[in-house]
Each structure stands twice: as C-alpha cells, then as structure tokens.
Design a protein that fits this description.
The chain is α+β, with helices and mostly antiparallel strands and about 240 residues long. It has helices at about 15-20, 25-30, 60-70, 90-95, 115-125, 155-170, 195-200, 205-220; strands at about 50-60, 75-80, 100-110, 135, 140, 145-150, 180, 185-190. Helix 6 links the parallel strand 6 and strand 7.
C-alpha cells in the first residue's frame, strides 16, 4: 500500500505497488487461489443471538473488509490489528512486521442471517488465499498472515474442523496454512484505513487485488451478496 493523500509513510507495499504500477506484479494476484467454490462447513453453529463477532486476518485488510461489507447479515466490518498488544497496534509499528499483529477485520454479523460457518466459507474461498504463508499477493510479512482469532471455544472448534475438512478434500493446490489464534484482542485501525476499498475503487492496488474478490463473492454466493456495502463511516463501529 502506498500513500494516497493519506497521513502515513509508504512503509509497506511500496515495492509491491511500484511493481504493480510498472505492470510487473500482475502475476502474483493471478496465481492466488481465490474465488474457489468450497463446500459449507460440516460443523457449524446454530445461534438465536442477535449479534456475533468474527475476527479474521488474510493479508491487506482493505480487501478483506471490502468483501465482508458486501455480505448480507454483516452489520459491521472494521479494519484493525490482532495478535499483539495495545501499545503497538498502530499502522506505523505493525508495518514493520515485528509486533506480532496481523492486519485483521472484525466482522459483526447476525447469525440468524449468516452463520459463523458461512463467514468462514467466504473467508477461505473469496477473501484471501489460505495457502500463502506470511504473505498475500504482493505483500510479505507476518502481518499479512492467514489467521482466525476465535472469540469462543465453539468458534475455535468450527474453524479447526473446517480447515481439516478442506484439507482432506484437497481443493487447494497447497496445504492450508491458516493459524487459529485464540485469546487475542482486536484493535481498530486508523480512520484513513476504514472503507478504503469503497472510497478508492480506482486505486491500482484495489483494482488488481481486491475488486476481483467482490466479483467472486457475487458470483459464488449470490444469496449472501449485498450490493450496497455496510460502511464504518458515519457509525460508531470503528470504536468498538
């Protein structure tokens, strides 16, 4: 990610973005295993609660947030950091890859409309490539790792069972490297990162790496796709 009239230095994704602009990094997203039709989890939860939270990491949070903002039943999707402590949960520090954080998205959803299992199904098939270790597309570093941060024991069991299910089905060309990291807090990212995909639809990184995710969501999960995204702007969601 490079600076786009934003108050932050071009510490990460600068090299990747320059390659994109030079037309040399197009191969990385093309090789990513995204947009793959996956079966639903054999193990899922049934909940009558009005709200539930899933925290997921899958590379740059711009695209992951954008995907879940278009999922029907999602009431909020906030970009942020998980896996490290509060003091170092800032963009400038996380960008160095030494804080333990992963760029993550806190997805709040209505389980009566979309289940946790369906959230995971979209995460593994559309939002990112779970076979890439400590990277996604042109981005490199542990801050871009594939990770699930379960908030309950039930979420941890469902995530583990689904990873095992997908592994046995051999639907990916390589082993799934997604980590399950319970007991981690989520810290919202700076305001200029929120709703980035919606606010910057022509930004080269978004066009190449993230807009295809939205199209894959619409194609693979039409019953769960919502055309109008639920945005952080104008709400209190970023502070949750």
């Amino acid at each position: 990610m490079t600076s786009v009239s934003m108050p932050f230095p071009a510490l990460r994704r600068a090299g990747g973005a320059l390659l994109v602009l030079a037309g040399l990094a197009l191969a990385a997203p093309a090789l990513a295993q995204e947009g793959i039709a996956l079966p639903p989890p054999a193990l899922d939860e049934t909940s009558s609660a009005g709200s539930e939270v899933a925290v997921l990491a899958g590379g740059c949070f711009w695209g992951v947030q954008g995907v879940f903002q278009h999922v029907d039943g999602v009431t909020s999707a906030v970009s942020g950091y998980a896996g490290g402590d509060k003091d170092s949960a800032t963009y400038n520090k996380v960008s160095y890859g030494s804080t333990g954080h992963a760029e993550s998205v806190k997805v709040t959803f209505d389980p009566r409309k979309v289940s946790y299992g369906q959230i995971l199904q979209i995460y593994f098939s559309v939002a990112h490539d779970p076979t890439q270790l400590n990277r996604q597309g042109p981005d490199r570093g542990t801050q871009y790792r594939s990770a699930v941060f379960p908030s309950t024991d039930a979420q941890a069991r469902i995530a583990k069972a689904y990873i095992d299910q997908l592994g046995k089905a051999k639907l990916f060309d390589a082993r799934i490297v997604t980590r399950i990291e319970p007991g981690q807090s989520f810290y919202p990212a700076e305001a200029y990162h929120q709703d980035f995909l919606t606010r910057n639809p022509t930004y080269p990184y978004i066009v190449i790496n993230d807009l295809p995710k939205i199209e894959n969501l619409k194609r693979l999960y039409p019953a769960l796709y919502r055309d109008k995204p639920v945005l952080v702007a104008g709400s209190a969601a970023a502070g949750q």
